[in-house]
Amino acid sequence: MQDATAVPKAGENVWLWLTKIISGLIVFVVLTIHLIVNHYVAPEGLFYYDDVINYFKNPLIPIMEGTFLVFVVIHSSLGLRSIILDRNPTQKVMRVVDTVFVVGGLAVIVYGIWLLVYVAGLG
Amino acid sequence: MLSREQQGLNWLLQWFDPRGRSIGGLAFILNRITALGLVLYLYLHLYYLRQLTMGPQVWNAFIDSAENSPWIGIGELFVIAGGLIHGLNGLRIALNSFNIAVPYQKQLFYGLFTLALIGIAFFAVHMFGA
Questions:
Q1: How many helices (H) and strands (E) does chain B have?
Q2: Domains of chain B, CATH where assigned
Q3: Which of B14, B97, B113 to mutate to test the interface with A (most CBs of A within 10 A)?
Q4: In a structure prediction context, what are the per-residue pLDDT tens digits for chain A, which is 123 residues long?
C-alpha cells in the first residue's frame, strides 16, 4: 500500500512535513477533548448567545479553542501546500504560495484570537 | 495537443477519479477531499462566528435561520463525516510516518474506515433519528 502523504514529497522540507504530521495529531487530540467537553458542558449544543457566553466563562475554554485554532491553521495551510506541490509548481510559484499561506495563516490566527478574547470578555 | 487549461482540468479530474486505484490511492483521495471540505468549513465557520460581535439579536436570528434550514443539518453531518474519515485516516498516516504498523497499514485503513462509518451512522441517527 503506497501512501503519498506518509513521506515528505519533492519540495517539502522534512521539518514542514513533520510539523504537518504533529499538528495533525494535536488537532486530533484537541478536537476529541473539544467534543467530549461540549457533550458534558453543553449537552444541547452551543446554540444561542447566552449559551456561548456561559461556555466561554471557563478560562480553559478560550485556551483550548485558541490552541485548536493555531494548530488547525498550521495543519490546513501545510496540507493545502502539499496539494499544490502535487502540481509540480516552479520555485517562483512556491515562493508566492508560501507568502500567501504565511500572511493569510497569521491573519486568520490573529482574527480568531481577537474573536476568542472578545467573546470571553463578554462573560 | 491540449491547451494548458485543458491539461490542468484533466489533472484535476484524474486527481478525483477513483477508477483503477489501489486502496492506498483511494485512501489518498479520501484524505484530500475531506481535507478540502474541512478547510472550506473552517473558514466559513470563522467568518460566520464574527456575528457574535454584533450582539445577541443578530447571533440568535442567525441561529434561528440556520436551525430552520435542512441543509445545515446535512452540512453538519458532512463535517462530522469529513472529520472522522480525515482524522482516523490521518492517525494511520501519522503512525506509518513514524514507522509504526507499516506492514498492517491496509488492515489499519479498513479498521479505521469502518470505525469512521460507525461513527457517521451514530451521529446521523443522533441528529436525524426520532
A1: 5, 0
A2: 23-128 (1.20.1300.10)
A3: B97
A4: 655 556 676 667 889 999 999 999 999 999 888 878 877 766 666 678 998 888 888 888 899 999 999 999 999 999 999 989 888 889 999 999 999 999 999 999 999 999 999 999 987
CB A74 within 8 A of CB A105: yes
- Give A72's contacts in chain B (Cβ within 8 Å): 42
Contact assignment for A5 to B28 by CB distance below 8 Å: yes
* Confidence (pTM): 0.85
Give the C-alpha separation, A28 to B126, whole Å. Answer: 22
B123 touches chain A (CB under 8 A): no
ipTM above 0.90, yes or no: no
**Arch. (CATH architecture) of A27-121:** Up-down Bundle (1.20)
